[in-house]
Structures are given as structure tokens and as C-alpha cells.
Design a protein that fits this description.
The complex is a heterodimer. By secondary structure, chain A is mainly alpha-helical. Chain A is 71% helix and 2% strand. Chain A has helices at residues 2-7, 9-28, 39-46, 59-99, 102-122, 126-152, 161-174, 190-212, 217-237, 239-242, 269-291, 294-304, 306-311, 316-342, 352-365, 370-389, 400-414, 423-433, 441-444; strands at residues 255-258, 261-264. By secondary structure, chain B is an alpha/beta fold. Chain B folds into 2 domains: 5-97 and 179-265, P-loop containing nucleotide triphosphate hydrolases (Rossmann fold, 3-Layer(aba) Sandwich), CATH 3.40.50; 102-159, no CATH class. In chain B, helix 3 crosses helix 5 (127-147) and helix 5 (127-147) crosses helix 6. Classes of the chains: A mainly alpha, B alpha/beta.
């Protein structure tokens, strides 16, 4: 009798709503202390502070309001969700068709670039200006690179931060900022670090990829995780070479001297913003051409059915290593920018959570979709920065991943293929759910 | 006739642990021939195909393939993509298309896989890449016409019928410019009219394109009408060979197909 009651869809949904809102209340509630360990929990419901800043009422009142709101929205989604989807897709149909025209498409893209160019003049808060370079532009670059590996080639890389670290340390090395002498004793301008770092990072990608890309799925993920850790540990422990845990803070800013033209990128973030933006545009163009080329199709073929791909002459190892090296290139470039802008490199910047963060951006935005991962990176990073800039009541810095995680979970329920899904990926996920195709192999590592 | 061989398989043995999948198999195919391999379930037919295409590496024996330039090469030890490059194309027992791609894209991947333009060219979209893309597009259209899928070029391959999937796999295989096309049970899951169409298509591939055909098939009517010569495998060994008429009257073949119980044939693939 009891079980049957709980299995009724409305009842189940109601209790799930209560549970979800309770978790939110506790997470955003006051911290407990050793003396009163339960204060954090009870205070979450009784204290007179707001959990989202919507109302300034007692928490238990807000708690009930939010439970009812969630329950109502959920029920509506279940009963009217299909109709809602039909209505929105019908409403979006006409503008979408217009946006497909080539001149309109390029016009919109140009508009986005123009917005990106004027943005630093609109957003003048120094916190946000710094965040736009250090947290948004850099992570857009990293997400673009990881998207090549995870989205295009279907390889799960959990140590992507290693390439970012190598890019930054190579910059420190060639500009003579590390304890180990620069190559041939020449201290290069930071600009020259860009090609050198990209080449070295790509070589690192090939070196890591050649032996490990014979592995699949989980095994590859573990090996790349290890690689990421090894690089951080090297940076930490090779004191005489990398400067150990303190790293170095002697990296010169970017500067440009050519006859009369002389420009030094100083401490302000805006010049770095433009420099990074230029390269973001270049990487987006290059990667989208790549996606719709022979190489991009070969990656799709390998991702979907490696045996069939081999049978028509595609060398899987070659294309996987290629994906690793190309993806690493943009991470290496991001490393150069970070090193040049902050003039500082230390192992603490390149930890496992950063790798996971980049992966979250890619999954949230939509694996395999360039527009998706860029948007995903912008949304998640802006959200994280917002939480740091204006923390809600009871927010602790360590809560960040709870919020981001919740966002990701909601995304996976309502849009499993991501914010802007790639057309190919969306079909694959649809087919995997219908029990067709070979999409699952990424997750299980099974090979027939 | 015998000096223009395309495949020469000598004393090939393939084992998985203690299970012998192919036992001292010898067979050969002449250039331009439609050859069939038949046998009960678990006889080793697909293992033979996998050995011929580099997916499996037999422990003993020699497989020689004579490609375009007339130079014999050894298949054993070569990776599948190298075997494909030498001129061997295949289809799979359970169709293996790239199901999230369209019919056109599926065939195009085959057409461009042996072309020499790479990632850097793609990122700058240089002249070599443009030329390669155009050539692959033209070839893809030509092949879709040939197999009769032109009208479904932009259909998702997953939504094609079984018969059309077979046609797609044949087109994708042909796109790699093969010398020989290996067809693993092309008629499985198709209806009688699709079967007839496939038989005509297979004959057309040989007659118009000069591609030799090696066929595994369960449908006796199709095999007997299509194949010029056939081999019969049972428990990993060749038990008979000859023209369809000869094989049909061979007592060993009748025994293999009718005389053995179902239990004996199970547990091996």
C-alpha cells in the first residue's frame, strides 16, 4: 500500500522536489561549528536569511515556496513538455531558416565579434575585466582544444591541464624566467614563445598519444589523468628546473618593437583581452574548417565505428594522435597567454580540478559543437565568477563546484546533448538511447 | 587462369586459445571471379573474412593478395587500414554504417580515406584540400548513382532500410577503389525483391567495375545463381569446392548441412 502510494508519479515528483530544495537550502545555509554541529542543518530552514535573495522572509517559508515552484514546473514539463517543445521549435523555425542564409550567418558572426570587441568598454569593473581574460577567454581556448579531443575524436582526456601547464612553463623557460637557463642563453620576447610552446605542446601530445591511444574509454581516461598529475608533480618537485611550488614570477609581459612601433602589454587586462580574442577567432575558424573536412569526418567515423572505419582505410591511431596534438595546441597557447599576462607560473594553477572544469565546459556546452563549447565556457565561467564576485548568503568558496555540478545535472536531464548540441552528436545520443549505434563504446570501452 | 589470382590462401590456421576457428584452410580466387564461401553457422566464414582483411592475425599459413600493380603482398601482419589501401574492401554481417552521418557522408569518407591531404590543409582550406573535396564529391555522387541511392543522399544512414544499408556499404567499399569486394551475408534481413536487386547489383559491380567478388551467404538460391565457384567450410575446414552444380551433389556437403545436429554447430563463430 505504502509502496504503491510512493510509486504514484505525482507523489514521487513531490518528494523529489522536497529533497532537491532541501539540498539547496542546506548548501546555501549557514555553516555549522564544532560546538553546535547541527546548527548548519537546522539553521538552513529556520534562520531568517534568504537563500537566493528573492525574498527576505524566514527560510522555511522560502523552502515551501521553492518546493511548490519546482513541483509545479516539473509537473508542467512532464505533462506539457512535448507541446512546449513543439511550440518553441515552431516559433524558432522562421528565424532559424533566415539565419541559415549565408550572408545572414556571416553577418551574425561579425556582429558577435563586434560585440566582443566593444565589450571591455561596456564592462569597466576591474574584476570583470580581469575575469574576461583570465577566466573566460582562456577557458574558451581550453574548451575549444578539449572539444577536438573529446567532442570530435571521442577520446576522454582527464589530464588536459597538462598541455596548458606545458605551454605556460615553456613560456617561462624561453623568456629566461625559470631557474634552468633559457635555450642557448637567449631570453626571447614572450611573443616568440607562442610558436615554440605550440610546437612543444603538440610534440608532447604525440608523445603521450602514441603509446596511450591504443587504449579505449576508461583506460585512456585513467592514463591521461595520470599524465596530468605527473606534469604537476614534476613542476612541483623539480625545484632546480621549474622553481618548485613557488614557480616563477619573472616572466616578461608581451611587448612589440618594430622600428617606430612599440607597444608593451602591461598589467591591465584589456590589451590581453584583445590579443586572446584574436587567437580565439583564429582557433574557432581553423577548428570549424577542420570539423567539416576529411579529418573531421574521419574522427566521426572512428568515434562511431572503429572497425568499419579501419575497413575503409582510416588509420585510427593516426587520427587520434592528430586530435591529441591539435587539441593540445590551443591549450598550449592558453598557457602562453596566462604566463605572459600574470607574469607568474606555479603548479597550483594546473591541478586536476582545472582539467575537470574544462571537461564540464565541453559537456555542458555540447560535445563536438564549437558554438556550444564557446557558449558553455562563457556561461559556466561567468556563473562561477558571479558566485565569487557576489556570493549568495552562506556561500563558501568550496561550494563553487556544488553549484556548477547542479547546473550540469540539470543540463543533462533536460538537454543531454548540451546547450548547443552538435548535429552529429545529438543523433548519436538519440540512437544510443534507442539501443542503436556504437555511441556507448566511449563509455564502456567495449569493442566487438 | 590460375596465374591471375587475386587471393591465394595457403594452409591458414586461426586459433583463439584452444578453439580452432580456421583449420589448415587453403583456397584461391581468380581475378574477376565471383566466388562464394558457404557453410553452416560457426563454420569459420566470418573468421576467414576477418583474416583476409587484417582484423584477425592467423597463427599459421600465408595469405597473398595481388593488388593493382600486380605485385603480390602478404596480408597476415598488416593492419586493416593497410589492407584496405592495398585494394580489399568489405561489408559486414550486421551492417556497420556511420549511423549519425548521411548516406552521402558515409560514402564520401570511403572516397577520401586514401587521399593525401591532411589537417593543416584542412585548417587553411588550401587548393589541394579544395581539389580533393571536389574529386571526392564527384566520386561519391557517381557511386550513389551506381548503387541506386542518389535520391537518398541526404538521408541519415540509420533510417535506411536493410536493403539500402547493404547498398550503402557496397558503395562505401567501392569508394576506396578496391580490387576485390568481400561481402559478408549481403542478403541477410532483406526481402525477396531486395535480394534480387542486390544480386543484380553484385553482378554489375563485377561486370562494370571489374571488381572481383568474394561472398559469404546463407541464402542458397542467391549463392547458386550468383557464384561461379564456391568453397564449403565446416568446423573451420574446407570440405568441398567446385561449381554450384558440383557442390550441390557433393555428399559431404549434404551431410554438413543436413546430417549434423544443432548442438554440434553451436558455440563457435
Amino acid at each position: 500500500m505504502m509502496m504503491r502510494f510512493l510509486r504514484m508519479p505525482h507523489v514521487g515528483r513531490f518528494f523529489s522536489s522536497v529533497a532537491v530544495v532541501a539540498i539547496i537550502a542546506v548548501v546555501t545555509g549557514p555553516p555549522g561549528s564544532t560546538a553546535t554541529p547541527t546548527a548548519g542543518f537546522t539553521g538552513s530552514f529556520t534562520e531568517k536569511t534568504s537563500f537566493f535573495g528573492l525574498f527576505a522572509t524566514a527560510r522555511y517559508l522560502e523552502f515551501f515556496v521553492f518546493v511548490l515552484l519546482l513541483f509545479g514546473a516539473w509537473t508542467l514539463w512532464v505533462s506539457r513538455g512535448e507541446q512546449l517543445k513543439a511550440v518553441t521549435s515552431k516559433a524558432l523555425g522562421a528565424p532559424r531558416a533566415v539565419a541559415q542564409h549565408k550572408p545572414v550567418k556571416w553577418g551574425l558572426r561579425l556582429l558577435l565579434v563586434v560585440v566582443a570587441i566593444v565589450l571591455p568598454h561596456i564592462v569597466t569593473d576591474p574584476f570583470w575585466q580581469a575575469a574576461m581574460v583570465e577566466q573566460l577567454a582562456i577557458f574558451v581556448l581550453l574548451a575549444l582544444g578539449l572539444n577536438v579531443v573529446v567532442g570530435f575524436a571521442g577520446l576522454l582526456d582527464l589530464g588536459f591541464v597538462a598541455f596548458y601547464a606545458i605551454g605556460a612553463y615553456v613560456t617561462a623557460w624561453v623568456t629566461g624566467a625559470l631557474p634552468t637557463p633559457a635555450p642557448f642563453g637567449i631570453h626571447l620576447n614572450t611573443f616568440y614563445a607562442i610558436p615554440i610552446a605550440i610546437v612543444i605542446v603538440m610534440i608532447a601530445g604525440v608523445l603521450l598519444g602514441t603509446p596511450t591511444l591504443r587504449l579505449r574509454g576508461d583506460y585512456l581516461a585513467i592514463v591521461t589523468l595520470g599524465f596530468g598529475e605527473i606534469i604537476t608533480i614534476f613542476a612541483n618537485n623539480l625545484y632546480g628546473i621549474t622553481g618548485g611550488s613557488e614557480g616563477t614570477n619573472a616572466i616578461p609581459h608581451f611587448s612589440f618593437h618594430a622600428g617606430f612601433l612599440k607597444y608593451v602589454w602591461g598589467l591591465g587586462p584589456v590589451p590581453y583581452y584583445y590579443l586572446t580574442l584574436l587567437f580565439v577567432v583564429i582557433f574557432i575558424l581553423a577548428f570549424s574548417l577542420l570539423e567539416h573536412s576529411r579529418v573531421g569526418r574521419a574522427w566521426t567515423a572512428i568515434r562511431e565505428d572503429e572497425v568499419a572505419a579501419e575497413s575503409i582505410g582510416i588509420n585510427p591511431l593516426k587520427y587520434k594522435v592528430m586530435a591529441f596534438a591539435i587539441g593540445a595546441a590551443s591549450a598550449g597557447f592558453a598557457g602562453v597567454i596566462t604566463a605572459g599576462q600574470t607574469v607568474f607560473v606555479s603548479p597550483a594553477t594546473f591541478t586536476l580540478p582545472v582539467s575537470i572544469n574544462i571537461l564540464v565546459l565541453v559537456i555542458f556546452g555540447g560535445m563536438g559543437s564549437i558554438a556550444g563549447v564557446v557558449l558553455g565556457a562563457l556561461v559556466i565561467q561567468t556563473f562561477s565568477m558571479y558566485l565569487i564576485h557576489t556570493p549568495p548568503a552562506g556561500y563558501q568558496p568550496s561550494d563553487l563546484y556544488i553549484y556548477v555540478g547542479a547546473l550540469l545535472v540539470i543540463m543533462m536531464i533536460f538537454r543531454p546533448a548540451g546547450l548547443v548540441p552538435s548535429r552529429r552528436r545529438k543523433r548519436e545520443i538519440g540512437m544510443a538511447e534507442a539501443g542503436e549505434g556504437h555511441m556507448d563504446e566511449l563509455l564502456t570501452g567495449d569493442t566487438p | 587462369m590460375s596465374d591471375d589470382r587475386i587471393f591465394d590462401v595457403q594452409n591458414v590456421t586461426l586459433r583463439f586459445g584452444g578453439v580452432v576457428s580456421l583449420n589448415d584452410v587453403s583456397l584461391h580466387q581468380d581475378r574477376g571471379e565471383i566466388l562464394a564461401v558457404i557453410g553452416p553457422n560457426g563454420a569459420g566464414k566470418t573468421s576467414l573474412f576477418n583474416s583476409l582483411t587484417g582484423v584477425y592475425q592467423p597463427q599459421e599459413g600465408v595469405i597473398t593478395f595481388v593488388g593493382r600493380d600486380g605485385k603480390p603482398i602478404s596480408i597476415i601482419g598488416k593492419k586493416p587500414h593497410k589492407v584496405s589501401g592495398a585494394g580489399v574492401a568489405r561489408t559486414f554481417q550486421a551492417s556497420r554504417m556511420f549511423s549519425a552521418l548521411t548516406t552521402f557522408e558515409n560514402v564520401k569518407i570511403g572516397a577520401e580515406s586514401h587521399r593525401g591531404f591532411g589537417a593543416v590543409g584542412a585548417m587553411v582550406k588550401g587548393p589541394v584540400t579544395r581539389r580533393g573535396e571536389r574529386a571526392s564529391d564527384a566520386k561519391t555522387v557517381e557511386l550513389l548513382d551506381f548503387v541506386g541511392l542518389r535520391a537518398k543522399a541526404n538521408t541519415l544512414s540509420a533510417s535506411l532500410s536493410y536493403g539500402d544499408r547493404r547498398r550503402l556499404e557496397i558503395a562505401r567499399g567501392l569508394a576506396t577503389n578496391p580490387q576485390v569486394l568481400l561481402l559478408d551475408e549481403p542478403a541477410a534481413g532483406t526481402n525477396p525483391s531486395e535480394k534480387l536487386g542486390l544480386a543484380n547489383l553484385i553482378r554489375k559491380v563485377r561486370d562494370d567495375m571489374g571488381v572481383s567478388i568474394l561472398l559469404i551467404e546463407h541464402d542458397m538460391k542467391l549463392v547458386m545463381s550468383l557464384a561461379e565457384r564456391l568453397y564449403v567450410l565446416n568446423f573451420g575446414s574446407v570440405i568441398a569446392q567446385g561449381t554450384p552444380a558440383e557442390v550441390r551433389s557433393n555428399p559431404d556437403v549434404i551431410e554438413a548441412y543436413l546430417g549434423s545436429s544443432a548442438e554440434e554447430m553451436e558455440g563457435q563463430t
